[in-house]
Amino acid sequence: MTSIFQTAMGPDFHRLHPALRRRFSVGLDSGEACTGRGVMDRIWHGPAFVKPFLALGATRNILVPRTGRDIPFVIENVPYADTHGRETVSFVRTFDLPGRARRFDAQMVLGPRGDRILDYLGTHQHLASDLHFHAEPDGSLLIRSGTHRFREGPVDVRVPELVGATAEVREAYDERAGRFRIRVRVVNRYVGPLFGYEGSFAVSYTDVRARGVRPGLRPVREEARA
Questions:
Q1: For the segment 138-167, what is each residue's pLDDT rounded down to a tens digit?
Q2: What are phi and psi of 11, to 5 degrees?
Q3: What does each C-alpha distance from 142 to 4, 9, 83, 155, 163 come to in angstroms?
């Protein structure tokens, strides 16, 4: 059984900690979904002028315009076939912030060459990013974003560096605590850090073939272009 993440990483996948290998083996072959529940020790954003852009993205469940500490957190990784027949794994993150929960939605598919993951962001998948997965020497996982594209109707353009950003995700398994630890940073080349969070969570696995995909998890619109 091979997940889209194992395919993209190739032999490097086997250098991951066993708990990370299990977590990133979720897919249609395994028939498993993974739900993580924990706490974000910190959610932060950059300078004040960044907040309106985060707020705009939040209208489509992209990024989070709020800051906070000790925020309850859920991540849902559920595999399914999208309307274009591609194996997809959801990365839907819900932050239980005071007053109102916020979501950060992404849906991942295997890139057309099989060597990277294509990450569609938000409820309408207007933004898409190439993701590169690497196993670190200590068995942790490093994910870095590459090219970003904006797509709406006939529009299909590369997001320029001036307004774009690079995401870096580090995920590791803490054997002593029995929890996954995650740190996310989104940085603009010219402005600097824009947004991020760090915390820990425990996971549980369920049979997706028996439970299906819950309503509201899939995006409103699915983009066909890779």
A1: 999 999 999 999 998 888 999 988 778 899
A2: -60, -25
A3: 16, 11, 29, 31, 24
Q: DSSP class of residue 64? A: -
Contacts for 103 with CB less than 8 Å, ≥ 6 apart? 61, 92, 93, 94, 95
Degrees to nearest 5, angle at CA 134 with 61 and 203: 55
Phi, psi at 162, each rounded to 5°: -60, -35
Of 95, 77, 81, 80, the closest CA to residue 34 belongs to: 77
Instruction: Reduce the DSSP state of residue 195 to 3 states and report it.
Output: strand
The answer to whether 30 and 72 are in contact (CB under 8 A) is no
C-alpha of 213 from chain center = 17
Identify the H or E element spanning 208.
Answer: helix 208-211
Model pTM score: 0.95
What's the rounded Cα separation, in Å, for the pair 65 and 57? 8
The model's pLDDT over 101-135, given as tens digits with 9 standing for 90+, comes to 999 999 999 999 999 999 999 999 999 999 999 99
CA dist 130 and 118 (Å) reads 5
CA pair distance 186, 188, nearest whole angstrom: 7
Q: Which two tokens stand for residue 154?
A: 């006939």
Dihedral sign computed on CA atoms, order 48, 104, 203, 181: negative
Spacing of C-alpha 166 from chain mean position: 13
Q: Which two tokens stand for residue 131?
A: 């993701």
